[in-house]
Amino acid sequence: MVMAVGCSSAGSTPGAAMFHLTTHAFFKALLFLGAGSVLVSLHHEQDIWKMGGLWRKMPVTSITFGIGALALAGCPGFSGFFSKEEILMLASERQPALFWVGLFVSFLTSFYIGRLCFVAFLGKSRSKLVHHVHESHKIILIPLLILAAFSLGGGYLNLQTYFQLPIAHGEMGRMTMFLSICAFCLGTGASWIFYGSAETEKFNIKLLAEKFYFDEFYDRVLVRFQQAIARIAAWFDNWILGGFLVRGSAVVASCTGEILRLFQAGSLQVYTYLFCLGSALVIYFTLMR
Prior knowledge:
It contains eleven helices and no strands. It is mostly helical. Helix 2 runs antiparallel to helix 4 (59-73).
């Protein structure tokens, strides 16, 4: 979506980005809710290698999750395919380098979501926990079915524009569509080859296991820098703004009032005495000069 906005020309509406935002809302919500359905049935177990064969116990959840996965991967006919094609065609015309990046990301998306589906939903059960799994309540299944319908057919909301794209882009548009479908097929096929009947993780790559070290990067660069800025801002707010300017001025005004209050004793004798003393001081300094 961000790439589509960046590829949009100045003054034009980011139609491809908004279209993908709409379809993305359907299938991503479906995937999150489907994952929640599984977690509730598995008593919040999140390790997919302790799952397997869930489609036998949770057919509705499995089918709807599969629809969301195909939409995310960009399977032809599903909503994500149509919106992703618009973005790739836009990038191929205006930013070819970003097009190849997007195409590679499409391959990775098909691969990782295929891995999840093959390991968690297909195959055989990998733990005793799966034997006690049952389908979720209808309060979860009804939203899953609704979101699955939109994930499957939401792309047809902009079908006319979609079919005009290959014609408008000519040979490049047809080649872009072909490469996009190839990325989906290769990613899904690779995930089936490596994880279709896998019992354990095939790729023990530390970079992948550590999620590309994004958490460490955020912690050491962004979070610590943000915390340092926050501490400086808190000190400035507490001592300079709040202490010196706000509370300091209040203390000065309060002390001045307390001092002046000493001269307001409410006694006529004291006022007479101070008046006479003041008059004497005025006369003294006048005569001395």
